[in-house]
Amino acid sequence: MTLTLLEKDPKYLLSFEKSRLSTTQREFIFKKIFEKNTARGIWLSVDSEDLANLVRTREIFDYLLEYVAGKGDFVARYNAIQVVQHYKEFANNDLIQILLEYAIDQSENINVRVISIQALARLDVATKGILDQLSEVTKDKNNIRIQMAFFQLIGQYNELDDYIDLLIEAIPLVRFRQNHDNYYISTDSILEVLEKVKQPKSVLKIVNFFVEDTNDLIDIYIKDYTPHLVIQAVSANNSEIYDAMRTLLVKCVTMHYKEPALQLKHFFIRTDVNSILNTYYNSLYKLNARLAKLGTTS
Fold it and tell me: Where are the domains of the chain?
């Protein structure tokens, strides 16, 4: 039966109880499944993790690494990258360097470049050295898939403030109805990374971006970030951030942006500076009245 499945549809062997198979048997089955799919021109995606979980040995990692490095068969190389990203425990410099080369090479197939960056993210190798090499890919504004893969990777880096300018430059990519090559691409990774920024200087830069581009706060894809911006501003609060948040709130009220105005007002409540805000407006009642005209109350 096993031999029949290997010949006809080997993927069904993934549902077998692994404990009933020896390591040697699982390695044999792994190779048969991989080679069968590759020969048929089938791109592995959701099945890649199931295949990796079949057997996790150095032999299989080295087997995949040969395909990753080989450029003769596109499907074999693509599938090998898809699977090898699940072998974090065996990842070495050889693999990382190959993936970096693919990601940076603008003449490389776009699918290989994207999956190479995603594999680096999955392997959890977001170091400053790697990010510095890859940061160039964000300058290619025509390849949003590559940029989104990069932001998946950079989100794992602890010192995000090192790349705050690059992150802010990417905010416009989140906007609704951007040209995404005629198909939907999730840009959530950009906002998810922005939410992790903590240093006051970096938070101030984000606030100032929205002061200049206040329209973005009502964008369908960006507006949900406003509560996170308030939390960041509260945590990093200083006089410069206060002034910037005040300016941003005034602009939102003036432009009749009700939802972001209400969210931004929480910054002043949580930092206990309502009295200062009251003085600035001459009376906090005036601000509440403006908000009330927008259809709400404080």
Answer: 199-298
